[in-house]
Amino acid sequence: MDSTGTCWQDSPHGYGVVSRCLHWGMATLFAWQFVGAILHAWDREAAVTRWFWSSHGSLGAMLLVLALLRGIWGLANSRRRPPADPNIWGRLSSAGHLALYALMVIVPFVAMLRTYGRGKGFAVFGVPVLEASGQEIPSLMAVGNALHGWTGWLMLALIAGHVVMVAVHQYVWRDGVAGRFSRTRRTARPRRWRCRWPPGSGRCRPPAIRSRGARAGAPASVREPSSWLFRGAGACRAPGSCGCLAAGSNSRWRRNQPHSRARSTR
């Protein structure tokens, strides 16, 4: 972290500048690629389709290089990154990310194999990368024709699922996971979970989530959060403090209650 507080590397509380630039840069390029692919499947002869499709191969090669760099950077920061949730959602998230990383490499790689198999050569924005051999290799062409199309659409489906789950984290669970790619400082923290029950009750919930159903023995104004929204863990372990565990984080937070401060001043 430099003197301005900018974190270039990842941390348990969020992703650094390098990871964020790779993530959003590749997201922009993939959006361009899939818009061109959808237009190409709809009408190959349209002028707008030709405009998007003219850079499809070059951007694919660029995305292959960026995916490899992103994988290397991810391995180098694997022990610094925020840990996954130890539940079924965390395991599904890890599996989905691994599948996306694999497809980011497989999809452009098989396309380059097909291009090489056609013997036409390959250039990235006018810079020759593969020389034209003039000889077709049917086996490489068959691999590219068989894999490039459906693996590309599979990657689009995984990206759509990824976007949906980000929205769920941000607007339904409200656990601060989406903020990991929007903060650059190491001091950034997930959304804090605050205690809503009397000390010692062991009940915590995020402040923005409305609840329903009164807890047995609690005042009418105290409500228990809905089970499908309740993702917190931890407990109010001592009078005057809350030890709630923020979802998606391994850090425990304590917050002094007003009555605790009043006791300390007596």
From TrEMBL:
UniProt entry tagged with the keyword Iron: yes
Localization (cell): Cell membrane
Cytochrome b561 bacterial/Ni-hydrogenase domain: residues covered: 15-178
Cofactor(s) needed by this chain: heme b
One GO-annotated biological process of the protein: respiratory electron transport chain
Gene3D superfamilies in UniProt: Transmembrane di-heme cytochromes, Chain C (1.20.950.20)
Pfam families documented for this protein: Ni_hydr_CYTB
Annotated coiled-coil segments of the chain: none
One GO cellular component term noted in the UniProt record for this chain: plasma membrane
Main location: membrane
Membrane association type: Multi-pass membrane protein
Residues spanning the membrane: 21-42, 54-76, 88-111, 150-173
Domain of life: Bacteria
Any one GO molecular function term: metal ion binding
The entry's keywords: Cell membrane, Electron transport, Heme, Iron, Membrane, Metal-binding, Transmembrane, Transmembrane helix, Transport
Keyword Flavoprotein: no
Family per record: Belongs to the cytochrome b561 family.
Protein name per Swiss-Prot or TrEMBL: Cytochrome b561 bacterial/Ni-hydrogenase domain-containing protein
